[in-house]
Amino acid sequence: MKRWKSVVAIAALAPLALAACGSKGASNETEGKGGSQVAVTLDDYAIRPAETTLSAGEVAFKIENVGATEHEMVVIRSDVAIEDIPVDGDEANEEAPGMTPIGEVEGVQPGETTELVLTLEPGRYILLCNLAKHFGRGMVTEIQVA
After folding, report:
1. First vs last C-alpha separation in the chain
2. Top-tier CATH class for 26-145
3. Contact 104/50 with Cβ under 8 angstroms?
4. How far apart (Å, rounded) are the C-alpha atoms in residues 146 and 144?
5. Backbone phi and psi for residue 96, each to the nearest 5 degrees, phi listed first
6. Cβ atoms of 59 and 35 closer than 8 Å
């Protein structure tokens, strides 16, 4: 009977111990990777990163859609000026010369929050929503990674 009580006590305390070990508080580091986090707000029709200059390495984008429509966030490494991004119809041409897609998150519904973790090298990056007409309505911004 004593052994059973010990097992129950350990099982009850294990989640508390794990939570205490895993807590990072208000740090901007990702879980044990030494990377950074940046909040990104998607709205109808804007992309707003909380920071526009980031350190190279692992970056966890915490993406929240506060708009009324579905959005996505595409991350492209490029030195092409925003006004010079090649377009195909209503969308940015992600595969055009000078555009290197790094990652994306699709189908972010209104009110939804999601995460995109990427390893970024120093350079200039474009964040955009490439759903029909969203890019053309101004859903694009840039960040610098040093």
Report:
1. 60
2. mainly beta
3. no
4. 6
5. -65, 160
6. yes
Q: Are strands 46-49 and 113-120 parallel, antiparallel or unpaired?
A: unpaired
Instruction: Using alpha carbons, select from 45, 78, 70, 48 the residue that is nearest to residue 61.
Output: 48
The full set of domain ranges for the chain reads 26-145
DSSP state of 11: H
Q: What is the pLDDT along the chain (146 residues), one digit of tens a residue?
A: 444 344 334 444 444 343 333 333 333 333 444 579 999 999 999 999 999 999 999 999 999 999 999 999 999 999 999 999 999 988 999 999 999 999 999 999 999 999 999 999 999 999 999 999 999 999 999 999 99
Which letter does DSSP use for residue 86 in this model?
-
Q: How far is it, in rounded angstroms, from Cα 75 to Cα 105?
A: 9
Return the residue matching tokens 């004593």: 2
Q: What is the value of pTM for the model shown? A: 0.76
